[in-house]
Amino acid sequence: MIVLHPERLLAKNVLCFTTTRYHGASSGAYASLNLATHVADDEAKVERNRASLLAFLEKSDFALNNSTSTIQANAYTGPMKPLHFIAQNHSTVVSPYSESGNYPNPCDAVFAVEARRPLAILTADCLPIMIAHVEGFETAAIHAGYRGLTEGIIQNTIASLKANPNNLSVWIGPSICQKHFEIGEDILYMFAEHNKHVSFNDKTEKFHVNLQGIATDILTGLGVTNIQLSDQCTYCSDDLFSYRQSKHKGHKECGRMASIIMHL
């Protein structure tokens, strides 16, 4: 399995990555490692893809845990808890990790206060925002599209954590870039507080929004200073799923990548 990860570890003993399209069982617009069950893909193939992800996660966890260069061997604190996916719907709802997978519907961010709890969110243009306490066990994963960003999903997540924001390390993973994220005047009002991240394209007569820039401003405004940004655009890369690119190609749906974070 091929994955993308932060340039630097978010924190000692923290595993964090985003999957790509490769080495899965799905085909067509879902080719090949689609990890979402809600996009009309073959359910059996999605289950195979999720099983591959789980196997990779367990293998990566073991390898990272036994690295002498960056990870302390005594970080291993017991068996990994179950991996579940939350019911995302561009809300501002945040939930603690549930070992049973009993999450509210909708739910667009999840956090854990103990080690060995894998957190996962699905994206195909939206921001995967992964958070780790640099000294403790707290971790969080946020699915943030423009609606969640402007309505408070980041603020709600940070407020759910006990850690001081300046002790948090954040990775904003692969997402759509400003060039390809265009909106109409009908929702421009939602970005009134973030207008420095909005530009107008005379040729397309559309507004373009820098979602990573908005997220960074929100995080820094809350006191978070340790922020890494992925330079991978989902629309531009053939390695990643992009909902907007898929629509422009005439497909009704597309697959989703998973972003995972877990303290060992």
Give the total of domains.
1
Query: Which class in CATH terms?
Result: Alpha Beta
Using only C-alpha atoms, the radius of gyration works out to 18 Å
Strand order of the largest sheet: 3-4-7-6-8-12
Instruction: Report, as a whole number of angstroms, the end-to-end distance.
Output: 20 Å
What's the helix-strand series?
A: EEHEEEEEHHEEEEHEHE
Q: What would CATH call the architecture? A: 4-Layer Sandwich
Descriptive notes:
This protein has 264 residues and is of the alpha+beta class. It has a single domain (3-263), classed as 4-Layer Sandwich (CNF1/YfiH-like putative cysteine hydrolases). 20% of the residues lie in helices and 22% in strands. It is built from five helices and 13 strands. It has helices at 43-65, 146-151, 153-160, 211-221, 243-248, and strands spanning 3-4, 14-19, 94-96, 109-112, 119-123, 127-133, 139-144, 168-172, 182-183, 198-201, 206-209, 226-229, 257-263. It has a six-stranded mixed β-sheet with strand order 3-4-7-6-8-12. A four-stranded antiparallel β-sheet has the order 1-2-13-5, with helices on one face. The protein has a three-stranded antiparallel β-sheet with strand order 9-11-10, with no helix packed on it. Strand 6 and strand 7 (139-144) form a beta hairpin. It starts with a strand and ends with a strand.
